[in-house]
Write a structure and sequence with these properties.
The chain is mainly beta and 110 residues long. It has a single domain, classed as Immunoglobulin-like. The chain contains one helix and nine strands, in the order H-E-E-E-E-E-E-E-E-E. Strands 2, 4, 5, 6 and 8 form a five-stranded antiparallel beta sheet that branches. The longest helix has 4 residues, at 5-8. The radius of gyration is 15 Å and the shape is globular. The relative contact order is 0.36.
Length: 110
Amino acid sequence: MNAKLTERLVFSAPGEWVSMAEYRKVVAAASADVVSPPVQVSVQLRKATDASGTNAANLGSAVTSGDVAVAEADVSDLGATVGGAPYTHVSATITNGNGVVIRGSGRFTP
């Protein structure tokens, strides 16, 4: 099966809660709003139990870098709330920059 990479990835805006039901990996990439004077751009992946952001919590640590920052997680990193509800959705918070959230490695694709 010859599929294009763009056919296996799904892009969404930071701040939008998106389902990980059909994906194994999520990456949030951001670049700085300005490069002079230099600023630190930061990406924080977030997780929630639904598309409205219920039970939102940080997913790993924030990644902070010079002009580009990238945070990555696997669906197995989502876990569950203290009450046992599974985290199923992800989002990203980006500071001092703009970026995109990318889901990929479809669970049901070869």
